[in-house]
Amino acid sequence: MQVASRLAEAGVKGRSVTLKVKRRKEGAPEPSKFMGHGICDNLSRSLTLSRFVDSASDIAAEAQGLMRALRIPPGDMRGIGITVRLHTRLTTHSEISSTLDRKSVMRGLMGEVDDQDSL
Predict the structure, then answer these.
(1) Higher pLDDT, residue 62 or 99
(2) Which of 11, 91, 101, 111 is most buried by a 10 A CB count?
C-alpha cells in the first residue's frame, strides 16, 4: 500500500484515516473516455483512531470499515483515495533536542563517532 510506504519513508505514524471515493452520479451515463471516471459524486469519510498506525494492514482495515459504511455498489465506484493524518515522528532529532540542550546532543553525537573510530 503506497500510503504505508510513504509513512515509513517519512518516519511517521498517523491517527486519522480518511477515505475519499468517487461514486458514479445516479443516472450518469458511462464515461466516454476509456478508464475515465465520468460524472461523479465525491464522498469523504474519516476516522480518528485511539492509537498511531503505519502498517498497511492497519490502514487497510480502517479504510475497509469506512468503505463498508458507505455501501457503494462496486460497479458505481470510480476512484478511491486514502489519506493518513495527525502524524507523530517515530524517533526524531526534534524529540531529542526538545528534551536535551543542543550541546548535550552534540557531545552525544561526537561520543558515538569517537567510539566507532576506536574500534
Answers:
(1) 62
(2) 11
